[in-house]
Specification:
99 residues; alpha+beta; Alpha-Beta Plaits; globular
Length: 99
């Protein structure tokens, strides 16, 4: 399993129509891509980070993750929304360690 997370800040003002529209588009697009499991959108509450949001999702394996990354819906979201509306971001991809 791979847990893919991305922490980010938008160019939009907090609670603005632009922020709401971006998050709604992500919720409509990303979890509908085959292989995406447990998609969540979270808001940062710590004052120790400049990132305001996090997307998190899980994939069964590297093949599922690669298929998501190459999927036209993901590529379209990145090109039409992410590239213009995200001010900064950091990705994290984790594989759970065995007990």
């Amino acid at each position: 399993m791979i847990v893919h997370t991305v922490c980010f800040t938008l160019v939009h003002e907090p609670e603005s129509a632009g922020e709401v529209a971006f998050l709604a588009a992500a919720r409509a697009t990303l979890p509908a891509i085959p292989g995406v499991r447990d998609f969540t959108v979270s808001r940062q509450v710590s004052e120790q980070s400049d990132f305001r949001f996090q997307f998190s999702m899980a994939f069964a394996d590297q093949d599922a993750y690669a298929a998501y990354d190459a999927h036209p819906a993901h590529q379209g979201f990145v090109a039409t929304r992410w590239a213009d509306e995200v001010a900064s971001f950091q990705e994290f991809d984790f594989v759970p360690l065995p007990a």
